[in-house]
Fold this sequence. Notes:
Blueprint: H1 24-30, H2 35-73, H3 76-94, H4 100-106, H5 113-144, H6 150-164, H7 170-176, H8 181-204, H9 209-228, H10 241-275, H11 278-316, H12 321-354, H13 362-369, H14 371-388, H15 393-427, H16 431-443, H17 449-474
Helix pairs in contact: 1-2, 1-12, 2-8, 2-11, 3-6, 3-10, 3-11, 4-5, 4-7, 5-6, 5-10, 6-9, 8-9, 10-15, 11-12, 11-13, 11-14, 12-13, 12-14, 12-17, 13-15, 14-15, 14-16, 15-16
Amino acid sequence: MTIGESEVAGTARGAETGAASSSPIQSAEDSGVGSPSSVSLKQLAIRASMWTVIGFGVSQLLRLGGNLALTRLLSPGVFGVMALVNAVLQGLQMFSDFGTRQSVIQHRRGDDPDFVNTAWTFQAVRGGALWLTACALAAPLSLVYPGTGIGWLLPAAGLTAAIAGLASTKEVTLNRHLNIGRVSMVEIVAQCLGLAVMIVWAWRAPSVWALIGGAIVGVGVRSALTHVVLPGAWNRFCGEWSAVRDLVDFGKWLLLASVIGFLSEQGDRLLLGKIMSSTELGVYSVAFFLAEFVSQAVSRLTHVVLFPAFSRLAREAPERLRAGYYRSRFAIDMVCAPAGGFLVGAGPLVVRLLYDWRYAEAGAMVQALALRTLFTCATTPGAGALLALGQPRYATIAKVMTAVWIMTGIPLGFWLGGLSGAVWAVGLAYALPAGYFVRALKKHGLIEWRGELRTVVMFCGGVAVGLFAAAICFGD
Length: 476
């Protein structure tokens, strides 16, 4: 994860609304594909959904509580500097992402020790390489962003990549089989300890180093616990050629998507870092944290529950995937679409209730950025369904669209409307990819227009409720 992600700006990974309780597993059972397998898949997905809801709920409460505490202990400028550090580290992650996790979950040999250990070797070597790259980039970036201290911060923050690369693949294997109870507990414990270090450090010596120190502790605890607490065989270095070939073949599209995804997901921070002060960028980071709250819920559920379930269903009963997909979408839309719409309508109200006067400008930013939720409800689960069918190229093309929009829309928005115009450009970045995913789903026989319209209606309902709440409370 990125430095301070759970407490600061809330960037890219890594359950929330119980969506899989009405997920594709039901359609597998209805299709009568292998009775024991079907029942097992349904039971596993329901249990995984429950753990995901609990784990994500606790995690989000910790994130929100930590964010509120840290914004009172640290200045907005600290969060602006960390946004830049996070953007660089996330970029390094994306420029080297071969999708080993997705490969293990999706591949028919996902339980083969040689295949899994080869994937772990990829992961470990990559983590070390990322840290060395971060060290090498520190000096040049200190010239690009003078006065931020990034030359010293980046090598220290890069340690998290090396440590995370040593995490056991036991968690991926458990995720593949929708057995995520212990994984959720590991993540919560690590998050609690990392957050505690951040808060105590920020209280005793308020600086950006509090965020970095807490992140290193959190990632270290998480990696250690994946080896010690989770069941399964210990990893060892391995380089089986057939496994390498399969990993590269599956991951080449994901690697390209990740490279382009750096611009689509982190380009806003890098561009805004040149036109905003550190304080303004810190306010933007807080706004992004709030606006992405719902989108991260959709992403978490998709990656932890829906993608493994879709993958298994695609192998066993592909003709039932569309019904399962929209059952899952309904559960997501029912909660996430109105919640995102509410933030569009009541962004200033939410900011006034949660933060002090230094972050007042984040309210209008939340309204613009929360528009992304409407599009995320379609693109994220849709990408998971297409990836389960072995079609990763759609995610790559969608990221190209987003990257082009970000790199052209932010400068154009800034030229037309200043900082507000630039932020609105970020909020609209997923609109074109959403339309593209709808077309891709139609091509593969997965589209249901009623389901897509339902998302829009629920989102608009949330906007109306948010506007009403803001008008009642503050006359906004």
